[in-house]
Amino acid sequence: MSLLTVLAAALTGCGGGGERGGAGSAQVRGTTTVSPRPAHPSPASPSAAPARKPPTMAPGPGGLTPVFTRGPASAGKTVALTFDADMTADQGPRAAGGERFDNPALIATLKRLEVDATIFMTGRWAEEYPAQAKAIGSDPRFEVANHSYSHHAFATPCYGLPALDRPAMAADVRRAFDAFRRAGVRNVVPYFRFPGGCYDDAALRALAPARVTAVQWDVVSGDAFATDAGAVAEEVLSGVKPGSLVVLHCTRSAAPVTEEAVRTIVPELRRRGYRFVKVSELMSGRDDAAPR
Predict the structure, then answer these.
(1) DSSP SS3 for 22
(2) Would the pLDDT of 119 be above 50?
(3) Which of 223, 215, 165 is nearest to 195 (CA)?
(4) Cα dihedral sign for 229, 230, 231, 235?
(5) Residue 282 C-beta-side C-alpha neighbours within 13 Å
(6) What's the Rg (C-alpha) of the chain?
(7) Is 268 exposed, middle or buried (0-12, 13-18, 19+ CB in 10 A)?
(8) Where is pLDDT greater, at 130 or 60?
(9) CA 49 to CA 40: how far, in whole Å?
């Protein structure tokens, strides 16, 4: 991993290598498909086909929230690009002052290039940009997953992020799902990404009532606060393998060159034979995930 990646992860507190604020947790494997209480898909019309439930993993020993980091190599040349739409609970004044935590050009590029992707959105981001959240969640190329409401840490240390109390963790996740519902987001999946990638067994246990599958990554883009789109693209291209799950960002102020990097990443990976999928499709290739 390059120095750029390490520095960017430390700066942003989101999408780095992930820190464990306690005993490390092995990935939890499971078989059950569940939907979280707060995910509220819009009712289908009587003539519409029933919506398929996205695959999830069953809770692990002791009820720990399961963790998914990449798809199986048997899935072939598939890769999931994921984008964290970060905004903390206290950044409203900065947004009011003109700082942009969104990135419409990136979303437009993904659509133009016909790339399926998963957007991990904070509830606070959905509240700040409800029209964009609704548009993203209404586009069949995208699915919206949960990145917490407040973007506070679920384990410490975590790149300086303020920490949530254990009893507040599941409620914070539910609050984000509620924000999605109020914004009219439709394509919501029961997946959660820890802010900063930071978690421990206590966090996995505290999150269990939210009934989500935690989604991490195996490829770090290093796009946070990067100024060289070529370096970001090279970081991704050098790390992707069949079944990889890539973490990037959908925040102009914190990741200003991501859209430019994507314009290099996508055609090159296609040239190498890769197909872009959402996390739900990547997860469905696991032997221990139930089909939708």
Answers:
(1) coil
(2) yes
(3) 215
(4) positive
(5) 33
(6) 17
(7) middle
(8) 130
(9) 17
Mean pLDDT of 30-43: 35
Q: CA-to-CA distance for 15 and 219, rounded, in angstroms?
A: 10
pTM: 0.85
CA atoms of 283 and 290, how far apart (whole Å) = 9
Q: Which two tokens stand for residue 193?
A: 């990404």
- Pair of tokens at residue 15: 């999408």
d(CA 170, CA 168): 6
E strands in 24-149: 67-68, 78-85, 117-121, 142-146
Q: Please tell me the distance from the alpha carbon of residue 245 to that of residue 232, in angstroms, as a whole number.
A: 15
Q: What angle do CA 265, 189, 216 make, to 5 degrees?
A: 55
Phi/psi of residue 43, nearest 5 degrees:
-60, 140
- What would the two tokens of residue 162 be? 């303020």
DSSP SS3 for 247: strand
291 torsion bin: left (phi>0), alpha (psi -120 to 50), beta (else)? beta
| pLDDT attached to residue 21 | 45
**Range name among 67-76, 117-126, 249-258, 266-275 with the lowest pLDDT average:** 67-76
Question: Using an 8 Å Cβ cutoff, are 195 and 221 in contact?
Answer: no
Reduced to 3 states (helix: H, G, I; strand: E, B; else coil), residue 67 is: strand
Are the C-beta atoms of 38 and 179 separated by less than 8 Å?
Answer: no
Mean pLDDT of the chain: 86
Question: What one-character DSSP code corresponds to residue 124?
Answer: H
Distance, CA of 239 to CA of 272 (rounded, Å)? 13
Which segments of the chain does DSSP mark as H helices, in order?
3-12, 92-96, 104-112, 123-128, 130-138, 169-183, 201-206, 229-239, 258-271, 279-284
